[in-house]
Input
Amino acid sequence: MNQVRRIMDALTASLVRVELDGEQLVLDPLFPEEHPMDAALVEQVREHKDIVVARLRWEEEADRLLLEASHRLAAVYPGCPLECDVWQPHEDALQAAYHDGDLGALTRALAAREVFARKAFRKGAA
Output
């Protein structure tokens, strides 16, 4: 696992939300009384600010792509049942690409899911 993934996972496990405010990182503990921010984790974020900022910018772009793809599918969704086992390989590919921070893999997974969904929608059942 790479450094930025370790930091982001540690923030999540510590119940600390991280976001960008311009070029500044904002760390917001969700439950500061019960789970105060760990000083060592804050220092790690400071030391690796550049990669944390890059990851947050990447997540913004990835979220935009996911939202656009979801809107396209919603516009053509015929209301048929969606069976999880058929969709699961596509969802697994999306999650893996997102977790790995691979925008190319995410774009390919979104395209494959969209092709699959459109074919399933045309058949009337997914």
Remarks:
- Residues 1-47 form one domain.
- The longest strand covers residues 16-21.
- The chain has two domains: 1-47, 57-126.
- Strands lie at 16-21, 24-29.
